[in-house]
Amino acid sequence: MMNRFNHLPTLKIDAARKIGFIYKNKKYYGVQGDTVATALYANGIRIFARSLKYHRPRGLYSLDGECSNTCMEVDNIPNVRCENTQLKEGMVIKEQNVKGSAQNDMMSFIDKMDWMMPAGFYYNTMHKPAKIWPIAMKQIRKAAGLGTLSPDFEMPGSYDEIFPNTDVCVIGGGPSGMMAAIAAAKKDLRVILMESRPSLGGFFEYRKNFHNRSLELAKEVNALENIRVFTHTSMVGAYNNNLITGFQIGKPSDVFDQRYIEIRAKSVVVATGCIERPLIFDHNEKPGVMQIGCALRLANTYGLLPGKKAVFSIGHDLGLEAALELHNLGLKIELIADIREDGQDPALLQKIEEKNIPLLKGWVACRANGRKQVKSVEVSGIDGLISKTIACDLIVASAGMTPVTGPVTIALGKLKYDAHTGFFMADKLPEKMHVTGRLLGLDDPRSIETSGTLAGLQAALDCENCSIKEIGDVKKELENLPGPTRGTKLVTAPVKGRKSFICFDEDTTIKNIKQAIEKGFDVPELIKRFTSAGTGPGQGGIPGHNLPLYVAKYQALPDISIKPTTTRPPLVPTLLSTYAGTNHIMLKTTPMDKMQREDGGIFRNIGVWQRARYFSGDFTCEKEIKNIRSNVGMLDASTLGKFRIHGPDALKALQRVFVSDMSKVQHGRMKYSAMCNDDGCVIDDGVITKLRRNDYYFTTSTGRAGQTVEWLRYHTRYDKWDFHVVNLTDAMGVINLSGPNSRKTLEKIVDIDISNEAFGFSEYKEFTIKECIPVKAMRLGFVGELSYELHVPSSYMQSVWLMLKEAGSKFNIQNFGVEAQNVLRMEKCHIILGQESEQRTNLLDVGLGFLWDRSKSDAKTIGAVALAQAESDKTRLKLVGFKMENNTRAPHDGSLIVDEKVRGYVCTARDSFSLKEAVGMALVEGPLSKIGTRLEIFEDECGDDRIYGKIVAMPFYDPEGSRMKM
Amino acid sequence: MIFKNKPLWGKKKKLKSSYDVVLIGGGLHSLATAYYLAKEHGITDIAIIEKNYIGFGGAGRNTAIVRANQRTQHNVPLYKEALDLWPVLTKELDYNLMFNNCGNLNLMHSEAAMKAARMTIATAQFHGVESHLIDAKEAKEMVPALNISENITFPIHGAMFHPPGGIVRHDAVVWGLAKGAAKKGVEIHQHTEALSIETKNNKVCSVTTSEGKINTRQVLISAGGYSAALIHDMLGIKLPISVLTIQAMVTQPLKPLLDHVVSSGAYHCYANQTLKGEIATGAHMDPWPNYTTLNTAHYIKHQAEALSEFLPCLRGVRFMRIWGGLADMTPDMAPIMDGNNQIEGFFMNCGWGYFGFKSCSAAGKYMAQFMATDQCPDIFKPFALKRYEEHRLMGETAALVNYTPDN
Amino acid sequence: MALTITCPVCGKRNGYEFKYGGEEKGPRPEEKDLDPRAWCDYVHMNKCVAGVQEEWWFHKDGCGSWFTILRDTTTNLEIEKKEAQNDEQV
Lengths: 966, 407, 90
Description:
The structure holds three protein chains of three kinds. Chain B is α/β, with parallel strands linked by helices.
């Protein structure tokens, strides 16, 4: 294990606290504060993974997760970016996508086959002859993919979600972000500050000369109570009207492992700063090549000297600063090749000279040598004319800075190329979003901080808590500070590019990009699709702005009008478990839920509800059905929609939506009717009861209850009618008491006369049970027997249920479920909407035409026009009843009615216990719908076999209806 | 170098002042129409007018699922033919469309759904398309990652298994058809915007574009989600279309985990594994018209919740990228393919919703026949616009759709 | 979430609280002599505007109002209605 520095103030580790973990079945130790990657690095591991396509060795490159170089399997979770995953005791870490090991991968020979695999080669190969494709595809599938996931993997951990509102949301906890948060907070605004690393500080945090300042700022932030700081929180999405999403990694003391955060902000400040723009040269991703920040943070944050002998190839003063710091820590620096001919900070240059570190201006690394790790580097002038090779084990390389514009572009901000900085900078920002700090190309620490204050105040202005003058003052202050520095324009070292990688994850080289452009894929979006560049787990972090810069350069475009490819959320790959959060199930239960379950009810989801569908394992429901036909049964129908509509225009509203003439309903009476949509399709049916003038109680089907108010109001929205609709669905429960013994049962618990004379079929009655439970009772016959529908306040449902159960015990009262009801009503040919109707059938087609009153055209009844227009069309689907021939079993629901074409289908069919034969209802084309027509039935899996039925009159059971009227 | 690098769909050409046929839209239906016009009808003087680049719209944004298990007899034959064409096109175009014939598994979460599936399956079998109803256990054997326990919001009762379906590499179809069409002389004009269509005596006479005016006798608007707005703006023809944004996303790449396309109506979700190993998943549409192609926080969260339930191992996987595309939905979930209807020489092919990818080859083939012969092929007849005023919606959806107020 | 909508009763709220109710097409036509084409035009046909359109929304998880707003379909952003345009629905 490497020695750690322990004297640096910037360190985030506690070298004394060892943390054990398993890597490739062996025990290793890291220290408190390590990431998985730094712990491995400390143990001498340099090759972390193999690349997707060519199986090239890959190592530590950026430490911020811009590529998949450090993706490993951690505790059976695939594709974990080890470079920003905190090490925990007992972690089990495995390599991915290797045959053998990352050190010795038997698949590495593929790297030499690259000439066979130009951009898009898949499209031109492996399809001739056609037979080889399925075989090749199998191999491609095996070779593709990084990590492995077991199909029975169970994700451990707890996941939380919060949805805070705030005035100002600041993304990025570096110097400008902290200043913005402070400025806004001092204006008495609520502020949320998000930082992706575990602590605040940004790029001040790990630099010797700025570390103290970052601590000061963090202290000030933490002292302000109206700033809510989320550290270790990555912003992943930005949406219209400043909705920001992100996720937080929990600390050991938190109750969650990860937490989804969705923030609604009045104003947003983006302070995400810069990353380094990768330098493209031959073998630019070989282990031993890393970016400046990576090398510096390894030392300053994690106490690890990144190498022994290094060559720097840089294009920004941060490289000079890092070289000095690392030199002082013991790194031997053989050469600094600086892309820039001039423009360096003279103070830094002087110090470098004092330390005798060789520096070449206008030079750049052009090739990393070494089989698996860097052994030497070839550097050359940027024109490529002169070069030399230097032995080293570390190449610190970056072309310069590049702004992290993802949060801006996913919020639909536009970017524009800026020739001075060489950045694609935010040009048109969405409303109430501001950018600050290094995103503006600023480099001077004072400028960065001041720009943060400015952005904070601009956000405060969005919240109307800041004066324009104050903003003007800070603007002036900023103008007097150093502006953006000139950036480097170099995209690639002087190389041909066969092994120069523009995208590490997809092994896309400069040569591939050239091939794509020559094939006509001449804009970055198309190149991305054709070469896959930027579509890997690093999500474009490495190709980023290099891709459009290179495309512009290669095509020698005079101005860089080319845009980077669209950035897509999540900006940081996010676990499904994190997005899912607490994962709620939101199904509704009726007041009878528990009692029915105790009685053996087998429940099913029906729409938003859970309902008892069966009361035994016999799904034909024979016992339930026979008991209704001969004794009495109880069904919980509480899911029915129940509404009261009242007010001066209540009747008019009913006339609009129901097809029948509602003015004919007398006080205290009820009527069954249906609602259609504008196509004439039946969308709902129910019973309307007139309680008093312009005051009605009505029911709807279970499925429609949620839309009834909306429907009524929608279709009367121009009329300015005065009515009120109250949804009583959850306030009232419904018990359906059915069977020849139901009157005898009900009589026992009511004290009014409910004889057939006093309370006849299709009548309505209100009464109270035990002088306190108000009941609305209707005599309906959905199942075809003597039947009472009792509407009871939900809170009394269980009491009434128990009373009925007791009262009915001597008549053998039993529960029945939704399926028994389904069969009973089918025998009676009562339809269920959606089962015996569909989009192609209207009210007339399903035999409910008798409900439609044509005399009320002034009401503009919904569906009436379509019904009138379609009435003469005799070819439409019609609902028919049929019996099976020769005692054949009932066909499956959904079987087809055919001749040489499909003519219709079976809606519901059962072997009827009541009728002792197989009957059903079907929708068939009009010409086939006459009674006596023989139906040829095609069932799934029937092959050439057909079964036959014959159209008969409906209903099948008790055609006179005497049983429900008894 | 064994592969020559020359522009796949021809060198850029200057727009001429007249063409026999102008196709507006550089997506799959338009490219397929051009290809078949040239190949089967010898009509090669064609300009494809594309505002962005080919495959910019739905062609490049769909999740590449192909299948032929539609609900009604008018639709099944069309999709069956499209499905049969993938291997044929691979050969004809000499371009690997990467048809992964992995089969589709459509999960059913209730007895009612099982019944509905039976009808769809019977319809498929009646038309010679393989499709079977399987129970939850059989589904689990095929997709070991499935959660068939009762303790989820929508327990799995079974599935409709459709072996001939699968996944095709969508970009390859765009580029392959472009290559095939260009080879036969079709001109593809990218970054060219169609601005208006001029008519005389109810006959098409020209199309004005950002690069100049084109005289032509025939024009097809087949511009995916943008068709309805174009047709209304250019010709004043209103359509029963609602244009919605539909979203899809992929996870980080994994070694083989899902060997079939798995979809669930109840969870509004489908998932399949691409050849690269990503789990591609999506389905949701925000039910209000918009042309934004914006994704939403609401949906990516919903999708994670849904997958967490029925494919729970995916909780350990990360989403990598989400995007949106347009779906031009009709009330009966079936397209509008019509021509010479209100204006002679004007054809339209739109309203595909999210079925535009799987149908493109067959729709292009018959649209080419329609345009070349001026006779509507029988297979297209049920898809005419007039069906809406004749009260003959197609019933491709059993349930009423929820993106119109009419529900 | 990409959409916020201003309900005349409840103010600016999350778009998912609402349900879209179609393009504004005016009141239901008179039924007398309504031919199939005119009926179809009212019931099914849309302009599919790529830009600002007037459209109906229902506050389903709120007060239950139906109202119209102006919205740009290319950005999903609500456009403020001018005072003059404020109809009596509100």
